[in-house]
Amino acid sequence: MKIIPAANANKQKKPHLHLFLLAVTAIIWGASYVSQKIGMEHVEPFTFNGVRMLVAGIVVLSATPLMRKLGVSRKVSMKEILADKQVEAVEDLPWYDRKPQLYGSIFCGLALFAASSFQIYGLQLSSIGKAGFIISMYVVLVPILGLFLGHKIRSVDWLAVVLAVIGLYLLSIKGEFAISVGDIYLILGALSFAIHILIQRHYANMVDGVALSSVQFLIVGTISLIPMFVLENPSWQGILQAAVPILYSGAMSSGLGFTLQIIALQKVPSNQAALITAQESTLAAFFGWLILGETMTGREILGGVFMLTGVLISQLAPEKKQKSNAGINV
Predict the structure, then answer these.
(1) Burial of 61 (0-12, 13-18, 19+ CB in 10 A)
(2) Could you read off the pLDDT of 119-131 as tens digits, one per residue?
């Protein structure tokens, strides 16, 4: 995957097609909240998650050869990795970087399993609009978690965090600091998505991104089969009744959504890309109202505004110039 530093990308002609692809991705992801909610009327969470992730893995895996021909996906040699890390031998790399395609896929799969599981359980106990806003906190949580990895956090990001916390309070805390079980699941989901993004960023320039996506989906689907058979009572009838939501969430939301994002990131700087895709939270609320007739209280709408403002401030603030990897995102 070609990596374009943000400073250079801004000088290029505006990539209208790639910006459009990101907008389509945000719409697909926003609608996925509805498909998950509808799907779980027929099957239980791990059944839905397991089947849709296996569908996503198969779709993306089958598209990998085409993505390589188009130049969207490519294998990264160990020689390139050593040069990027400025070391002479594989033994000089941390153990988790010596086989980046393998370890990256496993770590991303585990993080995505946790994130998608918490999200789908939270959706059962919350409205789509509220769930979308809480999950969108991953955009703000990423720089916070980055502190533990030695990343620097800007003052504007602290402001974004404060606004997001205020929004989360208005959305989630009821009465005397009572927070619902569904909100806890969604907060843990947002945290897991943030970890997932950090893992992806770590391996971004060391792996074939499309291949990593396909394998992580297959890992999530396979792991989900265990609690699916142990804790739930899956049936072919239920899966067939949820076929449309499962196919949409698998092929469209996970498979196509991540692929479009990878293509778009070849031309669009990461801060702009994150700003566009983060609108999935607003779109989730819109689709929840349009399709399911859900509504949000005035307090919850105000909380959503605070959270969305925090996300926008965090993403719109100009990045400091960096020598390399300024435009990487996954």
Answers:
(1) middle
(2) 888 888 877 777 8
